[in-house]
Design brief:
One of its GO terms (biological process) is lens development in camera-type eye. The chain has two helices and 14 strands, in the order ββββββαβββαβββββ. It is mainly β and 183 residues long. It folds into two domains: 80 residues, Gamma-B Crystallin, domain 1; 81 residues, Sandwich (Gamma-B Crystallin, domain 1). The longest helix is centred in the middle third of the chain and has 5 residues.
Length: 183
């Protein structure tokens, strides 16, 4: 049984300018388009919970994981090309984590079920890449490089037949990490 519904509320405050200057917008849930609240967002404070922020509307584009802390210059700290345009609160998950990864799109090729973090898909499973997955339990971050480096993508429970539909064309993932209570 998944306890995803038992989540702690998160709170993030976005600021138009670097160093927490300018107008601000407080957010406690998902926001697909921040332009109605702020003209841009270049810094933020995460007071509680964990969030994914995106450099395009509708949870598209480059993604960045934010945990409790202060981010005075999002563009330089995270290598963003543009300001934050949308954000998604990550519910806290209590219970087991399970994800099945596939080497090819549409659940093809080799597959392996994971319940723990994997710092290198090639070393652990002898898979060249991961191009589709099924997240059964928990919330995960997938990274384009081994050792949890490079571009990342947030995965919540569901089937992901290919990553192009999520705006990650040509992306291959080489390491995966569970998002745990230690946010």
């Amino acid at each position: 049984m998944s306890n995803t519904g038992m989540n702690m509320r998160g709170k993030i405050t976005f600021y138009e300018e670097k160093n927490f200057q300018g107008r601000s917008y407080e957010c406690m849930n998902d926001c697909s388009d921040m332009s109605s609240s702020l003209s841009r967002s270049q810094s933020c404070r995460v007071e509680s919970g964990c969030f994914m922020v995106y450099d395009r509307n509708n949870y598209m584009g480059n993604q960045y994981f934010m945990r409790r802390g202060e981010y005075s210059d999002c563009m330089s700290m995270m290598g963003m090309r543009d300001c934050i345009k949308s954000c998604r609160m990550i519910p806290m998950h209590r219970g087991q984590f399970r994800m099945k990864i596939y080497e090819k799109e549409n659940f093809g090729g080799q597959s392996h079920e994971m319940m723990e973090d994997c710092d290198n898909v090639m070393d652990r499973y002898r898979m060249n890449e991961c191009q589709s997955c099924n997240v059964m339990d928990g919330h995960w971050l997938m990274y384009e490089q081994p050792q949890f480096r490079g571009k990342m993508m947030y995965m919540r429970p569901g089937e992901y037949r290919n990553f192009r539909d999520m705006g990650m064309s040509g992306q291959r993932f080489m390491s995966m990490r569970r998002i745990t209570d230690s946010c």
